[in-house]
Structure formats: C-alpha cells, structure tokens
Amino acid sequence: MATVGVVGLGAMGGRIARRLADAGHELVVWNRDPAKAEPLAAAGAVAAASPADLAGRVEVVITMVADPRALVDVTEGQEGVVAGVSEGTTVIQMSTVGPESISRLASLLPDDALLDSPVLGSVSEVESGTLNVFVGGPPALADRWQPLLSTLGAILHVGPVGAGTAAKLVANTTLVGVIGVLGEALALADGLGLSREAAFGVLGKTALAGQAERRRSAIDSGEYPTRFALYLARKDADLILEAARTGTELRLTTAARNWLADAEEAGLGEADYSAVLARILGNTEATQEESSER
C-alpha cells in the first residue's frame, strides 16, 4: 500500500480519496475549503496545511480540481505541490484541463515524475470503481502506479504525458455533442407536431437509443440531479475548442458549446449537464440536487 495525497476534495476528488482510503492506502488530503477535508480526517486521513505540505508527506500526489486556473493555484508557488515534491514522488494529474496546462506542469516537475491521467465517468462510477482512467506518461511509471489507479477503474495507457488529456478531450467531444443532438432531435419533433411518445419511439430505433432512454425521465420530470455540472461541461467544451485552434475545425462541438453556454446563462449552470436539454426544448425551470466538481 502507498501513502497517497489527494489535492481537491470536490464531488470527484473526495470520492477518489474515500475509495483509496477504503482500499487501505494511507491518505493525506488538502482542500481550499478545509471543511471538505474534515470527514476524511475523522476517518483517519491526515489533513495537510497546504499542497506543498501534502506533497512532502506522500509517495504520490493526485490532483483533482475544477479547471486550469485551479490547477495552477494548487501546484505552483511556495505553497503549491511542486514546491513540496521530492525525488521519487509522483504527481498524478486527474483534472480535466488543456494541453498547455499539462505541458506547464510537466516543465516544473522532475523528468518522469508526472502521469497525466484524467478520468471518464462521474460520481457513481468513482464510487463503484468503474471509471475509465486515461493514462499519459512513461510506461514504467504507469506500470508502477497501475495497482493504485486500478482501484478507481479500468486503465487505458494512451501515450506520453499529454496523451491522457488529449484522450479526455476527445471523449468529452462526444459527450457534449451527443446531448446537443438529442435535444435538437426532440425540439424538431416538437416543432413538427410529433408527440413526445412517438419521438422517443423513433429515437429508440436510432444510434441515440441509449441516450434517449437514459434521459427520458429527466426530460419528462424537469429534474436534472447533478452528476456532472453543466458549467463544467461548458468549461470542457471551451478546452476542446481551444485545443482545436491549431487547425482542426469542430463546427458541431462549437454548436454544442453554444447550447451549454446558453443554458448556463439561463441559470442552469449548477444543474447536470443534461439540463441543456431543457434549454433546447425551451424549459428553463429545470431543477438540480447537488453541484458536482471534478
């Protein structure tokens, strides 16, 4: 078993920490809001004074924060993770950020000290250990930490540092695109006078069958309990489009991002990302239960 530090204890990071602790790893934790560390500390984890303090106590540091700015905040400066890393310490960066963020972090760490390992899945998948973990980094380092990462889900080693983030952006391109197409298909059905029952029957014969069935109860009820907050999906879409500025044209992803931004502006940012369906269908009265942070 390893001594593991987890920086960022939101909806995802807190559950990652809990799962690793339950697997028997010694845990050191830090969060900007110390209250989020208290339940883990009560269960035996050590609450660090800063990310640097945490990094100096552990063999491996996991970062799981909301966005690129937050990653800079917890990794750089006198109190950041990088300041506390010693020889032999590994940093596993699991947040969804962009290629520039990963390159920046890698440049600050010793060679072969970073695994770029964002995850596909949300709170229920981390609780059940069924996340998909996209690992970018040296094969030897990936092998070293495979048992730890396997506690969280299935591992796919996709290449060197940077490849993990690239894989996550590719995966999330499908996530934001599919939900947008589903919403527009239902909006078209409404506009053409097709009943909602008939529309779902038609969609059940298409490539969207699984998504249509999965989202039907939320559309019917107007309730979108948060697994992956809409404002984070919009952030991810922004990261995808920023990464594509090197010459890849993503017209569909741009349209999906605009729907997410519209929904966020309509007050649905804290709802699940699937609440974009409510915006597309003209219903901004959608409700949510709890906010998610990755």
Structural write-up:
- The chain is of the alpha/beta class.
- The chain has two domains: 3-159, NAD(P)-binding Rossmann-like Domain (Rossmann fold, 3-Layer(aba) Sandwich); 167-280, N-(1-d-carboxylethyl)-l-norvaline Dehydrogenase, domain 2 (Orthogonal Bundle), CATH 1.10.1040.
- The chain contains 15 helices and nine strands.
- The protein has helices at residues 11-22, 38-42, 51-55, 68-75, 81-84, 99-108, 123-128, 139-144, 146-150, 163-191, 196-203, 209-221, 230-243, 251-268, 276-280; strands at residues 3-7, 26-30, 46-47, 60-63, 90-93, 114-116, 119-120, 131-136, 153-159.
- The strands form two sheets. The protein has a six-stranded parallel β-sheet with strand order 3-2-1-4-5-6, sandwiched between helices.
- Strand 1, helix 1 and strand 2 form a beta-alpha-beta unit.
- Helix 10 crosses helix 11 (196-203).
- The longest helix has 29 residues, at 163-191.
- The chain is elongated and about 65 Å long.
- The two termini are 25 Å apart.
